[in-house]
Amino acid sequence: MENWKTIRLGNACSVNSSSYSQKDNWSFINYLDTGNITDNRIDVIQYIDIKKDKFPSRAKRKVKENSIVYSTVRPNQRHFGIIKSIPENFLVSTGFAVIDVNSDVLNADFLYHLLTQSSVVEGLHAIAEQSTSAYPSIKPSDIEDLTIEIPDLSTQDKIASILTMIDNKMMLNSEINENLEQQAQTILKEYMDKYHYTLMPLSIIAEVIDCLHSKKPEKDNDSNRQLLQLENIKDNGFLDLSYQFMISESDYNNWTRKCEIHEGDCVITNVGRIGAVAQAPRDTNVAMGRNMTCIRLKPKYRIPAFLITILLSEHMKREIRYNTDEGTIMGALNVKNIPKLQFPFFEENVFYELESLLSPIRKQFEENSLQNQRLAALRDTLLPKLMNGEIDVSAVRI
């Protein structure tokens, strides 16, 4: 790090430099709220017709290409990203700090990756927890006051290129998986329109298994027993095991009821993100955690691709909403109601014909998801080493 220099971040960037005013007189806005971006992946941009719809009071921050948006509330939830494509009349929430770099000093992609390091995120979250506001939050000045070490711009460009290439591949895999899921749901709908079926309870084809333990066990990093957490259950239907919460065998053996999750099993959440479903990939052997239930096909029915497809369908989402108990503070999907969820039961030959169409889609989906796990692990290993100069990138060509 001989040629690296230490700077105060605020001396090389501006924060919240441009805001919307009534003088702009836009007839509509495209609005990004803090909860709608995570790790640079945007879920939705809201279109708001100002003449018809209520103008969100927090829709004020303007951005430009390569602006970094960084949520000031609970930084550990990772609601941040770097803006590359800007729709017309685009505003983001005042819950973001909008960071624009001085391009003579900083590469915006380099800074974005620097700010997303776990050490930086955890440091900012620690500051947030000391705040006196209603929620753990940081001030723009907390970001500006960060002291960072940076190399020359050429080296920044190379580091940013390496990390962005990994991120772009992960994003492409995710987009392919969204398309694959749409294909699977389209095929399912076509079969429901084309073939006769009877609505039957899920218990016809699957066992529903819950576990019972009174409290969350202590984390034990020396153990080989992984416990599933809600963080492992992704909204796209994949069980991501890269986040590991290890527990002791003694804690596990003390549970009244326990369940190990294996390939093809589906896990559904009972509280919080009620009805979130994911299917375990190959080589899975983990203990099921709290507030979730296992749905395991009976040996007679070898239709795992159908199972996850129907559990992710709009039909089943309606079933889950209908069987959710809203009488509790958070709402809950009672384990006793899961076997009663109604699904389309086809003739056996139709089932297996449908499975033959869905299976290759699910296999490709799983492979893309597993590749993203490996890429994320590679990025997380490289990131701190690149940012502290441990890896020499002088020979890299971009």
What does this structure look like?
- It is a single chain.
- The chain is of the alpha+beta class and 398 residues long.
- It has helices at 108-115, 118-129, 140-144, 153-194, 249-253, 304-311, 314-322, 348-387; strands spanning 5-8, 13-15, 28-32, 37-38, 41-42, 46-49, 59-62, 68-71, 80-82, 90-93, 96-101, 147-150, 198-201, 206-209, 225-226, 246-247, 260-262, 266-269, 277-279, 285-287, 292-297, 324-325, 332-333, 342-345.
- A 4-stranded antiparallel sheet has the order 2-11-8-9. The chain has a 4-stranded mixed sheet with strand order 6-3-10-7, with no helix packed on it.
- A hairpin with an 8-residue loop joins strand 8 (68-71) and strand 9.
- The two termini are 21 Å apart.
Gyration radius (Cα, Å) is: 24 Å
Strand content: 15-25%
As laid out across the biggest beta sheet, the strand order is 2-11-8-9
Share of residues in helices: 25-40%
Distance between the termini: 21 Å
Helix segment tally: 8
- The low-pLDDT segments are none
Overall SS class: alpha+beta
Categorize the overall geometry. Answer: globular
Mean pLDDT: 91
DSSP, total strands: 24
Q: Biggest sheet: strands, sense, closure?
A: 4 strands, antiparallel
